[in-house]
Design brief:
Layout (H helix, E strand, L loop, with lengths): L1 E6 L3 E6 L6 E4 L5 H10 L3 E5 L5 H4 L2 H7 L5 E3 L8 E2 L5 E4 L2 E7 L8 E5 L2 E5 L2 E2 L2 E2 L7 H12 L6 E4 L4 H11 L3 H15 L7 E2 H7 L1 H4 L3 H12 L2
C-alpha cells in the first residue's frame, strides 16, 4: 500500500505498508488526514519518518503522537523534539522494514531521504521533473545528493512531498524541450484536472524529464537551479 494524503496547499503525506506490517508515515504536514485515514481502516502505524525540519513536513507529529503516544519518530539531527536521530548512510530496521537513510543535503543542512523496498521518500530533495530550492546555498551538496538518488535502480518509485510536477515540467520544457516532456505535461494536466495526484513517479521517467538529474557538473546544476528560482 502506497498512499499520498493531501495536506496544506500542495503537500503529500506518504503512507507505506507491505506484507501486513504496520504503516510507516512519512513527513506528516498535518495531523488530521493521517488520523482520519488510519481510524477509518483500523490500521496501526509503526513509525513516523521525517526528511527535514521544515514545518510543512513536521507539523502533524504532535497531534499524531497525542493519539499514538508510543509511536517512534525517526528524524535527522536538525529536527528538534528528542526523536530517534537517523544517521546518513545508515540502515534502520523499523517494524520489520529495512530503511536505508540517504544523505540529500542542500535544501536544508540535514535533509535525508528514505529508501524502503524500492520506494524513495525524498521530501524536498527530488521532485518530479524538478528538485528543491537550495536554501543552504550549498549547491555541491544538493548536486551530490541528487547523484546518489540517480544511482538507485531505474524502477525505483519516487515519492516526493509536493505536487509541483506541472510547474517543473514547464521549466524543463523551457530549458530542454522534448517530446517526452510534452507527453508528460499532457498526462499530468489530465490527472490534475481530475483531482488526482501526479505522483508517484519512477526514476526511469525522471531521468528522461528531470533536467536536474541530467546535469553533469555542479556548475551546470547551479545554473539550472538558479534559473528555476527566477522562472
Amino acid at each position: 500500500m502506497l498512499i499520498p494524503l493531501n495536506a496544506l496547499n500542495d503537500n503529500y503525506i506518504w503512507l507505506y505498508q507491505s506484507h501486513q506490517r504496520g504503516v510507516l508515515i512519512i513527513d506528516p504536514a498535518e495531523t488530521q488526514p493521517v488520523l482520519d485515514y488510519l481510524s477509518a481502516r483500523t490500521i496501526e502505524p509503526v513509525a513516523i519518518l521525517i526528511t527535514h525540519n521544515h514545518g510543512d513536513h513536521t507539523g502533524g507529529i504532535d497531534g499524531i503522537l497525542s493519539q499514538y503516544p508510543t509511536l517512534p519518530v525517526y528524524a535527522p539531527e536538525e529536527v528538534q523534539g528528542g526523536f530517534h536521530c537517523v544517521v546518513p548512510d545508515s540502515t534502520l530496521t523499523i517494524g520489520g522494514y529495512t530503511v536505508a537513510v540517504i544523505p540529500t543535503f542542500g535544501h536544508t543542512a540535514g535533509h535525508v531521504s528514505y529508501f524502503i523496498e524500492g520506494h524513495l521518500f525524498c521530501g524536498d530533495s527530488l521532485f518530479s521533473a524538478g528538485c528543491g530550492r537550495v536554501f543552504t546555498g550549498d549547491y555541491a551538496a544538493m548536486f551530490a545528493g541528487l547523484q546518489r538518488l540517480n544511482d538507485l535502480p531505474a524502477e525505483t518509485i519516487i515519492c516526493p512531498a509536493h505536487e509541483y510536477t506541472l510547474a517543473n515540467l514547464r521549466f524543463a520544457q523551457a530549458v530542454k524541450p522534448s517530446a517526452v516532456i510534452t507527453e508528460a505535461m499532457a498526462r499530468v494536466e489530465k490527472l490534475r484536472a481530475q483531482g488526482k495526484p501526479s505522483l508517484p513517479s519512477t526514476l526511469a521517467q525522471e531521468r528522461k524529464i528531470n533536467p536536474f538529474l541530467q546535469a553533469q557538473t555542479v556548475a551546470q546544476f547551479t545554473q539550472l537551479r538558479q534559473a528555476k528560482d527566477n522562472f
